[in-house]
Fold this sequence. Notes:
Oligomer: single chain
Number of strands: 0
Radius of gyration: 16 Å
Distance between the termini: 45 Å
Mean pLDDT: 86
Order of helices and strands: HHHHHH
Structural class: mainly alpha
Number of helices: 6
Shape: elongated
Amino acid sequence: xxxxxxxxxxxxxxxxxxxxxxxxxxxxxxxxxPSSQLVSASLLCVYLAKFYWWEKYYLCAxxxxxDRFGFMLCWGTMCFMPLVHTLQNLFLVTxxxxxxx
Length: 101
């Protein structure tokens, strides 16, 4: 249950939210993705790719091994983390910021 909820649903929501915000930003800007949204979305996708690459080691971590599957683990990975860690992308949907070189 921990693998399904934490690793599959929770982490995939991060990616889904981030990519949804990036596509909406591009839609609002006539197909152009501002550099700030591109960097933010890319970094989060790299982070998630790294997580899935080392998923078996994550599942051996002490907190995953010791804590039982309950409300905090489920709510944290399904609601809190995808929401909080994608707020910057949500902000960038309506606030176009171009990063200078």
